Amino acid sequence: MSLLFAGLLREKFPLCDFVTEKEEKCGILRASVMKNIPEEEMNMAVIKLTTENFEKEVMQADQPVLVDFYADWCGPCQMMGPVVEEIADETPGIKVCKLNIDEQIELAQRFRVMTIPTFMAFKNGESVGKQIGAVPKSALLDLVK
Prior knowledge:
Blueprint: H1 3-12, H2 21-26, E1 46-48, H3 54-59, E2 65-70, H4 75-90, E3 95-100, H5 105-110, E4 118-123, E5 126-132, H6 137-144
Parallel strand pairs: 1-3, 2-3
Antiparallel strand pairs: 2-4, 4-5
């Protein structure tokens, strides 16, 4: 889905704040989804990327970096939020970052992010891998190692 199309869909059909019965039964989502957590209460191990800090935090990083390209209105992105936080908490040798594609359109376009969630791994300033969609934690760890 293109970023323009996704933006139009979001304007026409705003995301409802509820968990479906199916998602609740599967235990996929936790009670407080990422978009409802105030920024000051977000996991501080996860770095919020902007055009201002992207070069320093990702391209000049001296350790592997996992970047989660997401949007607040994206259900699969919300499901992956806790997984991304776990990786940040449990893996000190990996820098974990999140990039909101609605706020950082230029960066999403630069890396040709057409579907979300998209996860990209960077080492020594180079993109070394890409994973699209909701995936198990092990797949993200394999991507960045």
